[in-house]
Q: What sequence folds into this?
């Protein structure tokens, strides 16, 4: 009877805390669906309450986050008061549109909250759709002048996907994912040009972009455009063809690895 009386009270408190957090996010201008409770994040929040650092708590709970935030609040009499205390200084994090899941822990008047963007990479079967989307975003970027660092570029003609360049990109993405490294030099010592040569593609100019951690075409292209060297490859007017691929290894540091190959054929 005692346990039956306590459980609804705890559940009601957790629900009140979640509702208060959602309200705080709305006040900060958060768009998109409400945060959804996640059992592994609840476990991680309990570990936070026990003194574990955030990364250790997430890892021990088996949860991989692309992005995460934690808040620890003490001395507040209600969930509403605790969550409202976050609004003045933490709106940027609260309103982060990538956050989709939450874990909660309460002990007396102390509150532990983890909000996270789950690591949710595309499936291998989606590679064709992802490549097509990267192509659209790259050509959209090439369609207008831009600066890549200090270097100005005029608008450039669109590039097209080439199956051999996709094969070269896939070989390098697979290698990086399998062995958990991010570099232009392959594990076998190969250069981007040598990997293109292996496919039988005849080229006059080759360039390569790599990345890790991004889980969508939008994220990876945005990251490349924000980097002067990668941006320059995207805007290079002499390139006419492209290949892109990703590979996932959840046990690796990056989780997902991308390779993008540009070329001017001979």
A:
């Amino acid at each position: 009877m005692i346990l039956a009386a306590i459980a609804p009270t705890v559940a009601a408190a957790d629900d009140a805390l979640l509702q208060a957090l959602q309200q705080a996010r709305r006040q900060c201008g958060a768009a998109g669906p409400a945060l959804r409770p996640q059992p592994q994040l609840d476990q991680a929040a309990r570990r936070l309450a026990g003194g574990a650092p955030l990364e250790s708590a997430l890892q021990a709970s088996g949860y991989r986050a692309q992005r995460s935030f934690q808040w620890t609040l003490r001395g507040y009499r209600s969930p509403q008061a605790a969550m409202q205390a976050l609004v003045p200084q933490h709106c940027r994090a609260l309103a982060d549109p990538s956050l989709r899941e939450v874990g909660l822990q309460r002990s007396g008047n102390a509150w532990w909250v983890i909000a996270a963007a789950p690591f949710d990479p595309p499936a291998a079967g989606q590679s064709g759709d992802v490549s097509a989307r990267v192509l659209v975003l790259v050509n959209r970027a090439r369609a207008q002048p831009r600066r890549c660092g200090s270097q100005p570029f005029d608008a450039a003609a669109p590039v097209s996907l080439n199956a051999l360049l996709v094969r070269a990109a896939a070989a390098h993405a697979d290698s990086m994912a399998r062995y958990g490294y991010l570099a232009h030099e392959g594990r076998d010592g190969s250069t981007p040009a040598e990997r293109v040569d292996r496919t039988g593609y005849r080229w006059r100019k080759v360039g390569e972009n790599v990345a890790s951690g991004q889980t969508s075409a939008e994220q990876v292209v945005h990251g490349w455009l924000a980097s002067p060297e990668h941006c320059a490859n995207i805007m290079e007017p002499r390139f006419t063809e492209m290949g892109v691929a990703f590979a996932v290894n959840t046990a690796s540091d990056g989780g997902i690895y991308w390779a993008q190959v540009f070329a001017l054929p001979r």
The first strand starts at residue 36 and ends at 37. Confidence is low (pLDDT under 50) at residues 1-10. DSSP finds ten helices and ten strands in the chain. The longest helix spans residues 2-27.
